[in-house]
């Protein structure tokens, strides 16, 4: 058996890691073809990664030109603790205020230690300047090095 087969997570475990996570690494494609890599808070909607960003951000400009993304959610500090899920796909953009606000509330609700009223005010203020995105997965790759022990 190949090591890749040993460390690959079953789909339900990969989905649980995505559902339990709060931050991911998001890669978009810059105009010159280089990757633009940033950390983002995210949520899950109907099994898909959801995030939002300011409409004038570099990632938003990149996604308007090329909707392809790669998202990485990972966990662990030592080699035999490492696990992760990489989702490659394309985004669907949401621009209507109600849709953006709903995604904003989803993400804000996952931010630890914040008062709900403060978060609602933040989301209402920020939503007017943002777009939201849903990742349509094309390929999902996972690994869990705990399976090597």
Label this structure with key terms:
149 residues; globular; single chain; alpha+beta
Summarize the structure in words.
With about 150 residues, the chain is of the alpha+beta class. The chain has five helices and seven strands. It has helices at about 5, 10-20, 60-65, 95-110, 115-125; strands spanning about 25-30, 35-40, 45, 50-55, 70-75, 85-95, 130-145. Strands 2-1-5-6-7-4-3 form a seven-stranded antiparallel beta sheet. Helix 4 (about 95-110) runs antiparallel to helix 5 (about 115-125). The two termini are about 15 Å apart. The model has no long low-confidence stretch (mean pLDDT about 95).
Reconstruct the topology from this structure.
Blueprint: H1 3-7, H2 11-20, E1 23-29, E2 35-41, E3 43-45, E4 48-54, H3 58-65, E5 68-75, E6 83-94, H4 97-108, H5 116-127, E7 130-144
Antiparallel strand pairs: 1-2, 1-5, 3-4, 4-7, 5-6, 6-7
């Amino acid at each position: 058996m190949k090591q890749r087969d040993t460390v690959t997570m079953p789909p339900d475990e990969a989905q649980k890691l995505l559902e339990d996570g709060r931050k991911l690494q998001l890669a978009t494609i810059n105009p010159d073809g280089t990757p633009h890599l940033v950390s983002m808070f995210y949520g899950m909607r109907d099994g898909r990664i959801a995030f939002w960003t300011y409409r004038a951000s570099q990632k938003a400009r990149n996604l308007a030109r090329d909707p392809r993304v790669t998202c990485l959610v990972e966990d662990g500090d030592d080699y035999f603790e490492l696990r992760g899920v990489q989702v490659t796909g394309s985004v669907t953009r949401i621009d209507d205020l109600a849709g953006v606000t709903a995604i904003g509330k989803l993400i804000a609700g996952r931010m630890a230690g914040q008062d709900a009223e403060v978060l609602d005010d933040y989301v209402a203020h920020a939503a007017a300047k943002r777009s939201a995105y849903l990742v349509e997965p094309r390929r999902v790759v996972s690994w869990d090095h705990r399976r090597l022990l």
